[in-house]
Amino acid sequence: MTATSDHDQLYSKHAPRWHQRLGRLGYTRAYDHLMAQLPPLPDQARVLDIGTGSGAFAASFAKQAPANCQLTLADPNPEMRREAAAQSQDWPQTVQITDAKLGDPLGQYDILLCAHVLEHLEIPPALTWLHQSLTPGGTLVLALSRPHWCTALIRWRWGHRAYRPDQARDHLAAAGFRDIQLIPFPSGPPYRTSHGYIARR
């Protein structure tokens, strides 16, 4: 369950500008909106952001989360890991940066964050891995591309898939997730190209 080497080279090329570009397009505000819908977190929650990229999704989580959370930011791309390390150095939580990808044996976490990763993978086995990587009752926070003509341009560039919210909900349910919430992003490019989800194991 990995991206191709061509995609890896693309991510390496764009890593230094990735975080700034997400902010300019409104994705960081969209991620803030999604994280604001989370229920109260368990004390000393263990949190994994899988495919963290520059750490933008985890940054929105860190704004909302207690300081005693333990965050692991995982990405197989070294340039993206360097960006995530730079972004996270002033967060109040304990942060670990690790070279890992979705599908690796990483144990179980109370909360999983996963933004725009499943588009590059076969979604049933990826969701099965996410489900198995959560503690019972744990929470998945997901951002996933949805069909739009803008998404078609992104797909041409990055080679990823897109899912209607009802399709994503059905895939989540088939993988065993429950209490699935569909949370649209409020405005801008994220509203057109992406959708947010919160679900429990």
TrEMBL record:
Coiled coil, from the record: none
Q: Which Gene3D superfamilies match?
A: Vaccinia Virus protein VP39
What are the UniProt keywords, alphabetically?
Methyltransferase, Transferase, Ubiquinone
InterPro entries, alphabetically?
SAM-dependent_MTases_sf (IPR029063)
Q: Which GO terms describe its biological process?
A: methylation
Q: What Pfam families does this protein's entry cite?
A: Methyltransf_23
SUPFAM superfamilies, per database record = S-adenosyl-L-methionine-dependent methyltransferases
Q: Which GO terms describe its molecular function?
A: methyltransferase activity
Q: Which PANTHER family match?
A: TRANS-ACONITATE 2-METHYLTRANSFERASE-RELATED
State the protein's name.
Bifunctional 3-demethylubiquinone-9 3-methyltransferase/ 2-octaprenyl-6-hydroxy phenol methylase
